[in-house]
């Protein structure tokens, strides 16, 4: 490979510390130094070009987590192609629809899962081809050219393709690095799915930026993950998960908090994290740093890592770095005073390039250069941010704003209740009223009259749901988010009285 200036952080670290460990594929045991990872990325770039992949072409992958996904993404960035990983858990018709929308030049599958529509080559075949490929000479990367497309989870309808440039991704990595004490000796354990921003970006790019290491596992298995976090030979410093994963770890019989003392923190996001659950970890000496981000804007907020601050501000998602600008505005676009909830707007280099082939959706997502997140947030007088709810989940009952997340928080720890969700439903008298959906613990029954009495004691009357329905489980996306759109569609609303 011709000698030239490094074009990305992996190429840079390959020059600075070629033999230093960059990545480990835990399923196969394959280990990659920075020199080896850089070489495979350059070889993969050659392979993709030979397959006709060029600037703007989509390279779709439907595969379990593997270092090869990181190699593919970095190779796409170097040649100008757009890496497009898809959710392996989707049904075949859903995958076929997304592949048809992406119109990929190349589709890569995984022989460990069922044959996928449009598959051109398997991940294993691609890896076997790399040694025979001459490394592509590096060329400057346009930082504003999209290198990644992530399809949104579709909680609000048809999934949209979020286009992210290398500038967006690098800024997200830098923001997280600043907030999360990432350094040259940091080791990330990543088992969040690599079709998601946490799995593909947050779990890899911060460590690669500074010469750290990322350990990539196929999937989250609570007992296996806990053993890895506690393994002194792996030296895991950073673990990023959704709150449900953190709860699953703590519930294991093998959970021993002192064995996790090597962690800088457990970093959580992607769904609300109850303050009580955070404080349970804090009492055991484990920092749980909640944060806020999304596919379109990357890493925005993060909590400090001091135990006392986490305990005092449990439930907050922290604050941003100086590299991200945020506002909280009301319906008229006027900045909200401290303590008043409003929609979060974001501006900065983390903000995405736009939605794939959707100029109308892109235009609607911005207001005078600010991205409208659709999340209702408040900030306290110390500058800590709290996510109140999704704007789309808020409903208006008798002229009053009702935030379902506030109601759901009142039910945390309620006896015999596994989980709960509230949605707004039409009502002739009040416009909308709340409909509470509850899931009892296995083998338990819930008295809905007592449950509503519990809420009546803690909430204003207009906030208390009018109806209650029991389900066996709440519908969730692959990343753990409750699908309230699916709940609304499934509910049979009683006639209003």
**CATH topology name of the largest domain:** Rossmann fold
Tell me the number of structural domains.
Answer: 2
Low-confidence segments: none
Rg on CA atoms, Å: 23 Å
* CATH-assigned homologous superfamily of the largest domain: ANL, N-terminal domain
Bin the strand percentage. 25-35%
Adjacency order of strands in the biggest sheet: 2-1-10-9-11-12-13-14
Structural class: alpha/beta
Biggest beta sheet summary: 8 strands, mixed
Number of strands: 25
Task: Determine the fraction of residues in helical runs and give it as a percent range.
Answer: 25-40%
Counting DSSP H or I runs of 4 or more residues, the number of helices is 16
Distance between the termini: 75 Å
Short description, anyone?
The protein has 497 residues and is α/β, with parallel strands linked by helices. The chain has 16 helices and 25 strands.
Q: Would you kindly provide a written description of the structure presented here, covering whatever features stand out?
A:
With about 500 residues, the chain is an alpha/beta fold. The chain has 2 domains: about 10-385, Rossmann fold (3-Layer(aba) Sandwich); about 405-490, GMP Synthetase, Chain A, domain 3 (2-Layer Sandwich). It is about 30% helix and about 25% strand. Strands 2-1-10-9-11-12-13-14 form an 8-stranded mixed sheet. Strands 15, 16, 18, 19 and 20 form a 5-stranded antiparallel sheet that branches. A 4-stranded parallel sheet has the order 4-3-5-6. A hairpin with a 5-residue loop joins β19 (about 370-380) and β20 (about 385-390). The mean pLDDT is about 90.
């Amino acid at each position: 490979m011709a000698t030239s200036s490094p074009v990305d952080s992996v190429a840079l670290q390959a020059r600075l510390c070629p033999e230093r460990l960059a990545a480990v594929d835990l399923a196969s045991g394959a280990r990659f130094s920075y020199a080896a990872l850089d070489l495979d990325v350059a070889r993969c770039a050659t392979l993709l070009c030979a397959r006709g992949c060029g600037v703007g072409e989509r390279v779709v992958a439907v595969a379990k987590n593997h270092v090869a996904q990181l190699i593919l993404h970095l190779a796409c960035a170097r040649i100008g192609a757009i890496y497009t990983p898809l959710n392996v858990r989707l049904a075949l018709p859903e995958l076929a629809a997304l592949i048809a929308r992406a119109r990929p030049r190349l589709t890569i599958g995984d022989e460990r899962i069922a044959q996928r529509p449009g598959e051109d080559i398997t991940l294993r075949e691609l890896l076997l081809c790399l040694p025979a490929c001459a490394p592509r000479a590096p060329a400057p990367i346009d930082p504003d050219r999209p290198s990644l497309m992530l399809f949104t989870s579709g909680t609000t309808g048809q999934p949209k393709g979020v286009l992210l440039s290398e500038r967006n991704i690098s800024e997200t990595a830098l923001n997280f690095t600043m907030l999360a004490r990432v350094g040259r000796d940091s080791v990330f354990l990543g088992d969040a799915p690599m079709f998601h921003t946490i799995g593909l970006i947050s779990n890899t790019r911060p460590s690669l930026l500074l010469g750290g290491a990322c350990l990539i596992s196929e999937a989250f298995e609570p007992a296996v993950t806990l053993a890895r976090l506690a393994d002194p030979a792996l030296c895991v410093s950073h673990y990023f998960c959704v709150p449900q994963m953190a709860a699953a770890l703590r519930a294991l019989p093998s959970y021993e908090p002192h064995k996790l003392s090597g962690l800088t923190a457990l970093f959580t996001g992607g769904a609300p994290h109850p303050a009580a659950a955070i404080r349970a970890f804090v009492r055991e000496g484990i920092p749980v740093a909640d944060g806020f981000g999304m596919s379109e804007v990357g890493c925005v907020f993060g909590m400090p890592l001091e135990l006392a601050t986490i305990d005092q501000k449990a439930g907050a998602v922290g604050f941003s770095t100086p590299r991200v600008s945020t506002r909280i505005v009301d319906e008229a676009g006027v900045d909200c005073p401290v303590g008043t909830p409003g929609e979060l707007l974001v501006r900065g280099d983390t903000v995405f390039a736009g939605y794939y082939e959707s100029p109308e959706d892109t235009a609607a997502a911005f207001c005078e250069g600010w991205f409208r997140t659709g999340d209702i947030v408040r900030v306290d007088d110390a500058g800590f941010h709290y996510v109140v709810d999704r704007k789309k989940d808020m409903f208006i009952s008798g002229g009053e704003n009702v935030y379902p997340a506030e109601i759901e928080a009142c039910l945390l720890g309620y006896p015999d209740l596994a989980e709960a969700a509230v949605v707004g439903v039409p009502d002739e008298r009040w416009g909308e009223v709340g409909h509470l959906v509850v899931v009892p613990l296995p083998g338990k029954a819930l008295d809905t009259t007592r449950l509503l009495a519990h809420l009546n004691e803690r909430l204003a009357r207009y906030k208390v749901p009018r109806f209650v329905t029991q389900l066996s489980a709440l519908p969730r996306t692959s990343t753990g988010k409750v699908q309230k759109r699916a709940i609304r569609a499934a509910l049979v609303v009683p006639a209003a009285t």
